[in-house]
Design a protein that fits this description.
The protein has 191 residues and is mostly helical. It is 60% helix and 0% strand. The chain is built from 9 helices and no strands. The chain has helices spanning 7-17, 21-41, 45-54, 68-76, 81-89, 103-123, 135-143, 153-163, 167-180. Helix 2 (21-41) packs across helix 6 (103-123), helix 5 (81-89) crosses helix 6 and helix 7 (135-143) crosses helix 9 (167-180). The radius of gyration is 16 Å and the shape is globular. The protein binds fe (ii) ion (2 copies). One fe (ii) ion binds next to loops.
Amino acid sequence: MEKIITRQCAWELLKEYTKTPALRSHALAVEAVMRYFAGIYGGDEELWGAVGLLHDLDYEMFPQEHCIKSARIMEGLGIDSVYIRAVMSHAYGICTDVRPESQMEKVLYTVDELTGLINAACLMRPSKSVLDIEVKSVKKKFRDKSFAAGVNRDTILNGCHMLNMDLDEIIRLTICGMREAAEDIGLKGSL
Ligand SMILES: [Fe+2]
Ligand SMILES: [Fe+2]
């Protein structure tokens, strides 16, 4: 595999290690949001997208070694360290001590948990769609700690701080990114 990963290669690699539909959808959601933010920050959409797609590469098979195994797999394939570092930094303070530094890493760190919250919030709606969800309903779910309790709110707030962006704005942009992939991530719903 080349040091620079095409979208097709990243997708094939993900499919090799991740069979669970929900995990594939999560990867696709994070990819879409990363691409969207790349557009905002002037980043390389292919790079940001691949990092989003691959960030949980090892999670299904090696949950106990999350991020560590991903790094080994990617190193073994000769993938460039910019991808590997970013993937490791998404679980900063939880699975790794790789602090998000680049804008790409900070966005990944922030939107990983947030896409999970938005996904859960969409599924509660009559439409089951990301296309009509509003920032304020996600905010309400954010404040309700018993809703999608596995979503780490502190990580999201840390990420907002790193990006110097307020929570409402990050939620708004993350919804926009997820809308781009609504069909693929099962959130087109019944609108
Ligand atoms: Fe993860
Ligand atoms: Fe994730």
